[in-house]
TrEMBL record:
Keyword Transferase found: yes
Record key words, sorted: Transferase
Gene Ontology molecular-function annotations: acyltransferase activity, transferring groups other than amino-acyl groups
Pfam families the record matches: Acetyltransf_3 (PF13302)
Residues of the signal peptide: none
Domain N-acetyltransferase: 104-243
Listed name of the protein: N-acetyltransferase
InterPro entries found in the cross-reference section: Acyl_CoA_acyltransferase, GNAT_dom
Lineage: Bacteria, Bacillati, Bacillota, Bacilli, Bacillales
Keyword Cell division: no
Length: 243
């Protein structure tokens, strides 16, 4: 049995191998694709097996000087970006359920203090948001109007919520965010909410995706506690990059 679903493998292969492959060896591949969106005109993926893949537009490949190089590697590529004044945003860890953990998850029954939230929960959700810091709200990006929203309660109070939205219009991957109010952390709320919303995503035909910044240690620990497996580190060009 493969570690991850074919949906995930195919998605990332399409992101990084569509176009003209400029260089490829067992450790590093770089591809030029003229159809990349503006906010992803450079992307880098380092998977847990140590392999690095990069993709960028022809204009940026020319600016970086890749067409004149025959010897490439991940470190050389990043150095060439720096020399060209091009900066990346800062990598996210990307987690998914392995096929084995997915099968375990699909057998679970949602606990009684969890439920899906709807627009009828606007007052409850507003109270939840007002008890969270602006930084936590920005980092988590949990919204009541997202594709799916689940919450955990203590004494009828919403204390943890997770929401999902389709990662891209033409993919079957759903990206999630989760937020637990500070006084209620460490009690297992986030783990239960993440597993519940991910089970819902699978039931709807989607693969759940969990992302966090490399220095967000609490979020990394939550992903692992929820049964997710690290797929790799994904980075894109910074919005402030000069190119």
């Amino acid at each position: 049995m493969p570690l991850f679903s074919q949906t995930i493998i195919d998605y990332w292969r399409e992101q990084f191998l569509n176009g003209d492959v400029l260089y490829s060896d067992e450790a590093f591949t770089v591809t030029v694709n003229p159809d990349l969106d503006e906010d992803s005109r450079i992307m880098v993926l380092e998977t847990t097996d140590g392999r690095v893949r990069a993709v960028l537009t022809p204009a940026l490949a020319d600016k970086v000087g890749l067409y004149q190089r025959q010897d490439l590697s991940g470190p050389i590529f990043r150095r060439k970006l720096n020399e060209a004044g091009i900066t990346l945003h800062g990598a996210d860890y990307v987690f998914y359920f392995s096929e084995t953990e997915k099968n375990v998850l699909l057998q679970e029954i949602m606990e009684s203090d969890l439920r899906q939230l709807t627009e009828q929960d606007n007052a409850v959700f507003s109270e939840f948001e007002s008890a969270a810091s602006e930084q936590d709200l920005d980092d988590a990006f949990v919204e009541l109007d997202h594709w799916a929203v689940f919450g955990s309660f203590e004494q009828n109070r919403l204390v943890c919520a997770a929401s999902m939205y389709p990662w891209e219009d033409d993919t079957q991957i759903a990206d999630l965010g989760v937020l637990t109010l500070t006084p209620f952390r460490g009690k297992g709320h986030a783990r239960k909410v993440v597993r519940s919303i991910c089970k819902y995503a699978y039931d709807q035909g989607y693969e759940p995706q969990y992302r966090c910044q490399l220095d967000n240690h609490a979020s990394t620990l939550l992903a692992k506690a929820a049964g997710l497996t690290l797929f790799g580190k994904w980075d894109v060009i910074s919005p402030n990059s000069i190119d």
